[in-house]
């Protein structure tokens, strides 16, 4: 979802030929997760890079069988309980470790459902009713929307914290229930890896309001200071395409918090992407220019 704004800004990339899958990281053989889960200041647990990650590189491929099509609270609660019981113990532990937020009304309603008989007349074990309630709340907090409707819980992908200026973009394949995350800029070893839970090209006030359901206020550099790290990453990619030594000390641009400022930021992205697209035909054995452009 995150790259829609950047790729949908105009027709200037219409002549660009996307590299073959063989030129990109191969999803089918991906197995090396370049991150570890550890405490993150003020965010509980987070995912941190265990080595430098290049732009466009796959960070995670995650599959799931934990998906529901919204069918009302009672049916959804039944499905959640059944899905949990069908998992291996290590998968159950991952689910149980996820964060959960909910308002009191929804928590009470979920707890009530699990205290009642199921649609087939059987009852939920009394000792598991509270656990099922928590699992449902965790699913709501960490599930990813699916294009055909409903939601899916990706147990490893759910460990990424939010930033309005993320360094990881992702796609969800609804046919295969597959989640693929790729770095949208270089991620340094030890740096926390973030995704965005919401569309990024909104004003700060709208973004903060959208995040209330997760129970936190975003304090990323984009929200607190208007810093746009992604623009700086694009400028570095442009320098590489022009065979210019990138200015590693370049300060990211700062934008205000109005609709006009958002438009200026997007226009800047388009300008740099247009310049990049004009360079992509040059010989480049490792395809780095093409990869920079695709994932920008």
Let me know the largest β-sheet: 3 strands, antiparallel
Q: Hey, roughly how much beta strand do the residues contain?
A: 5-15%
Count helical runs: 10
- How far apart the termini lie comes to 13 Å
Strand order of the largest sheet: 3-9-8
Structural class: alpha+beta
Order of H and E elements? HEEEEHHHHEEEEEEHHHHH
**How would you describe the shape?**
elongated
CATH level-3 fold name of the largest domain: Beta-clip-like
Question: What report would you give on this structure?
Answer:
This protein has 296 residues and is an alpha+beta fold. It has two domains: 4-63 and 156-295, SET domain (Beta-clip-like, Beta Complex); 68-143. The chain has helices at 4-7, 73-85, 89-96, 104-115, 129-142, 204-210, 221-225, 229-241, 259-277, 288-295; strands at 35-40, 44-49, 58-63, 67-68, 144-145, 151-152, 161-162, 168-173, 178-183, 194-195. It has a three-stranded antiparallel β-sheet with strand order 3-9-8, with no helix packed on it. Helix 4 (104-115) packs across helix 5 (129-142). The chain is elongated and about 70 Å long. The model is unreliable at 1-25 (pLDDT under 50). It comes from Xylaria grammica. Residues 33-198 form the SET domain. InterPro entries: H3K4_H4K5_MeTrfase (IPR050869), SET_dom (IPR001214), SET_dom_sf (IPR046341).
In short:
The protein is an alpha+beta fold and 296 residues long. It has 10 helices and 10 strands.
